[in-house]
Design goal:
Distance between the termini: 56 Å
Shape: rod-shaped
Strand content: under 5%
Structural class: mainly alpha
Radius of gyration: 19 Å
Largest sheet: none
Length: 46
C-alpha cells in the first residue's frame, strides 16, 4: 500500500505532522507560562 503513495506526499505529510506537533507543544508551553504568570500576580510565585 505504501508503494502506491508518492514520496512527495509522504514527506509533505511528515512535515505537516511535525509542524502540528511542534505547534501544539508551543501552545502547551505558552499556556503553562501564562498559568505561572497568573499565579505570580495572585501572589503564589514562591
Amino acid at each position: 500500500m505504501n508503494a502506491e503513495i508518492p514520496t512527495a506526499v509522504v514527506r509533505a505529510w511528515e512535515t505537516h505532522t511535525r509542524f502540528v506537533t511542534g505547534w501544539q507543544r508551543l501552545q502547551d508551553t505558552t499556556r503553562d507560562r501564562g498559568r505561572k504568570l497568573r499565579m505570580c500576580s495572585v501572589g503564589h510565585c514562591h
